[in-house]
Write a structure and sequence with these properties.
Elements: E1 8-9, H1 15-18, E2 23-31, H2 38-48, E3 55-57, E4 63-65, E5 86-93, H3 105-122, E6 136-139, H4 156-177, H5 203-234, H6 239-250, H7 253-268
Parallel strand pairs: 1-4, 2-5, 2-6, 3-5
Antiparallel strand pairs: 3-4
Helix pairs in contact: 3-4
The protein binds zinc ion.
Zinc ion (ZN) binds near residues 30, 140, 151 and 153.
């Protein structure tokens, strides 16, 4: 049983003790179609239905956790727990009554932080689930098997945020923390170019763009320096320069002898 330190624990009983263990491999996001606080969501799970999510997220970014992440919660159909013991961690988020509004900035930030924690705590790989059983990150309507009733959950605006801000944000935050990036057997390489131009949270792409700019500047400077050196080679030495080189050689008899020896060898050749 694992409890996220960033959430207020509101343990649901008897479900928390009665439901079987899972090994969490997925994180699935929902909209609850009501503007509820985590407390109100907890009361709904407790008093009105047998269903429940692991987490509830208010408009202000406040998080409640109702079930430990290594216990089954019932929000995603068959993904809650599979025959092999793996299952999905679920989050319900406050929304308007049509589930048509975007997540607030506070909600986006809270989801990103929780997403990073799930990667670090449970090793959920940093990719969007490619199938209903594939480990990774997703939202309710992404796979029909998670959503047999064909809800639009979490709504078009939030699906767009998931793809453009939330998931890239989780990847950027999780990979920025580990240097060099952790290699995991079940983790595909992250394609940073896939996030090109997808919003201000696309940190990896911005970083690469910055590096390229710095290289271009450096290239210009080296080019200018090389041109100067070429110019120097073609200029005859002044009398003063000849005199100072002669004095320097004369001050070091061993150097003078070495030059003489080298010249003698060259002349013989
Ligand atoms: Zn849902």
């Amino acid at each position: 049983m694992a409890w996220y330190p960033g959430a207020t624990k509101m343990e649901l009983q008897p479900e928390s003790d009665a439901q079987p263990a899972i090994r969490p491999t997925q994180f699935i996001l929902h909209s609850i179609v009501a503007p509820w606080t985590p407390r109100r969501t907890y009361e709904y799970w407790r008093d009105s239905t047998n269903l429940e999510s692991h987490f509830g997220l208010g408009y202000d970014g406040s998080l409640g956790q109702f079930i430990g992440t290594e216990t089954r919660a019932d929000a995603n159909g068959p993904a809650n727990r599979r025959a092999d013991g793996t299952g999905a961690v679920s989050l319900e988020s406050a929304s308007n009554l049509q589930a048509s509004d975007p997540w607030t900035d506070e909600q986006v930030e809270a989801i990103i932080q929780l997403g990073v924690w799930l990667h670090e705590k449970h090793g959920i790989p940093l990719r969007v689930c490619r199938s209903s059983a594939d480990p990774g990150y997703g939202y309710h309507r992404l796979h029909t098997a998670w959503n047999p009733d064909a809800h639009s959950c979490p709504g078009d605006a939030r699906v767009k945020q998931f793809r453009e801000v939330v998931f890239p944000g989780i990847v950027a935050r999780a990979t920025g923390k580990t240097n060099p990036p952790k290699q995991e057997d079940d983790m595909d390489p992250v394609d940073v170019w896939a996030y090109k131009g997808t919003g201000e949270k696309a940190d990896a792409y911005a970083y690469l763009r910055g590096t390229r700019g710095a290289l271009t500047d450096l290239d210009k400077k080296v080019g200018a320096l090389a041109a100067k050196v070429d110019g120097l080679e073609q200029q005859p030495l002044t009398d003063d320069q000849v005199a100072s080189i002669a004095a320097a050689v004369a001050a070091h008899p061993a150097l003078a002898q070495a030059i003489a020896d080298t010249l003698a060898t060259r002349l013989k050749d």
